[in-house]
């Protein structure tokens, strides 16, 4: 399938749940977001049918996301069902890895190819502050188990936040010298970029010195970083790259399979790579090849806009495969060229965990 701008649309990101066992400060409040009633969530049978229809149309890459997908019971059954379609060449999963140690082997056996791990710090004290749940040690154990069973290439997604974890960019990059991991630094991306233009507290003064103020600001506000704060916390990829090269030497461009939107580099003699996903300072829209299916059955052509089309209702009303295919084709035909955050676009709908990260 090609959209009206000539982009090949071959990648479907499928959220299997809007629930999560973490409460990352840039993603959701301490108490979490409202979640869909269970009867509104797609069943694995429904997901499999939609994914197979998408594969019939040429979508060969599927990523399972959440929320946290590993909290959905019997996820390996969904993986096995998806794998029955011969056109699907790449089946992956994004996870915080807290449950990965106990589930990696069964997921690999069911047909999962690889995992992306969301990990924003290598320090236990920061892990507690950012994720507000779980254990860094358990996450690292999960990564080790994923390596052991062969869920490769293993990608580590680190959301960079100025004054919070940007002092760890060299530590993450040094990891690629020791092991075959692919670290990608992601610019913090406020999903509601233009909603709150004022902030009663200077976020940078709160984040640049006294980390206690960072914690207090989270607790006193709505339980997560405000969009105004996140706008001020963006670390441009050029800054992170320069810091790494200053400490570890020059990096050269390097491509890996399933590279996706990252601009990827490699340090001399490194086993892994360092990548940068820069939706804000380096717009990636011209390379976008994806649609998103939410856990409650809404098909979205773009992460950064509110438009979505209901697939759950026609699915449950007995729509034929051809009728479902027509919905996919219509969404692709109307996929926007890019987001319009810089022009003041306001995205007022769901949070990232509700859409699928």
**Tally of alpha and pi helices:** 13
- The CATH superfamily of the domain at 1-122 and 136-152 and 289-357 appears as Aldolase class I
User: How widely separated are the two ends?
Assistant: 23 Å
Radius of gyration over C-alpha positions, nearest whole angstrom? 20 Å
Question: Kindly state the mean pLDDT as a whole number?
Answer: 86
Q: Globular, elongated, flat, extended or rod-shaped: what is the shape? A: globular
Specify the helix fraction band: 25-40%
SSE sequence, one letter per element: EHEHEHEHHEHEHHHHEEEEEEHHH
* Sequence stretches where pLDDT stays below 50 over 5 or more residues: 193-213
CATH class membership of the domain at 1-122 and 136-152 and 289-357: Alpha Beta
Strand order of the largest sheet: 7-8-9-6-5-4-3-2-1-10-11-12
Number of strands: 12
**What's the main sheet like?**
12 strands, mixed
CATH topology of the domain at 1-122 and 136-152 and 289-357: TIM Barrel
CATH structural architecture of the domain at 1-122 and 136-152 and 289-357: Alpha-Beta Barrel
How does this model look, in words?
- This protein has 357 residues and is of the alpha/beta class.
- It has a domain at 1-122 and 136-152 and 289-357: TIM Barrel, CATH 3.20.20.
- It has 13 helices and 12 strands.
- The protein has a 12-stranded mixed sheet with strand order 7-8-9-6-5-4-3-2-1-10-11-12.
- β2, α2 (75-82) and β3 (90-95) form a beta-alpha-beta unit.
- α1 (44-56) runs parallel beside α2 and α2 (75-82) runs parallel beside α3.
- The longest helix has 14 residues, at 136-149.
- Mean pLDDT is 86; it is low at 193-213.
């Amino acid at each position: 399938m090609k959209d009206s701008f000539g982009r090949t649309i071959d990648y479907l990101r499928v959220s299997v749940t809007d629930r999560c066992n973490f409460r990352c400060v840039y993603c959701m409040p301490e108490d979490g977001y409202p979640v869909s009633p269970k009867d509104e969530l797609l069943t694995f049978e429904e997901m499999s049918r939609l994914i197979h229809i998408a594969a019939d149309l040429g979508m060969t890459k599927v990523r399972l996301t959440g929320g946290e997908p590993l909290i959905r019971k019997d996820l390996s059954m969904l993986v096995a069902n998806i794998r029955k379609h011969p056109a699907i060449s790449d089946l992956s999963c994004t996870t915080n890895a807290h449950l990965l140690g106990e589930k990696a082997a069964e997921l690999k056996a069911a047909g999962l190819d690889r995992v992306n791990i969301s990990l924003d710090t290598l320090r236990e004290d920061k892990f507690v502050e950012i994720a507000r749940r779980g254990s860094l040690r358990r996450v690292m154990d999960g990564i080790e188990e994923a390596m052991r069973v062969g869920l490769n290439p293993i990608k580590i997604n680190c959301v960079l936040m100025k004054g919070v974890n940007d002092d760890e960019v060299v530590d993450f990059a040094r990891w690629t010298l020791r092991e075959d991991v692919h670290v990608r630094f992601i610019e913090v991306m406020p999903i509601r970029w233009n909603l709150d233009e004022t902030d009663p507290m200077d976020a940078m003064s709160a984040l640049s010195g006294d980390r206690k103020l960072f914690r207090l600001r989270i607790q006193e506000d709505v339980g997560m970083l405000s969009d105004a704060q996140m706008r001020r916390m963006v670390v441009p990829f050029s800054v992170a790259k320069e810091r790494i090269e200053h400490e570890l030497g020059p990096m050269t461009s390097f491509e890996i399979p399933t590279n996706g939107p990252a601009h990827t580099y490699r340090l001399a003699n490194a086993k892994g790579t360092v990548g940068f996903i820069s939706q804000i300072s380096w717009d990636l829209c011209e390379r976008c090849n994806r649609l998103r299916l939410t856990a409650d059955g809404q098909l979205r052509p773009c992460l950064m806009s509110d438009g979505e089309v209901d697939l759950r209702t026609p699915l449950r009303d007995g729509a034929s495969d051809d009728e479902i295919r027509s919905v996919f084709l219509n969404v692709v035909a109307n996929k926007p060229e890019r987001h319009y955050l810089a022009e003041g676009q306001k995205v007022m709908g769901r949070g990232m965990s509700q859409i699928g990260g």
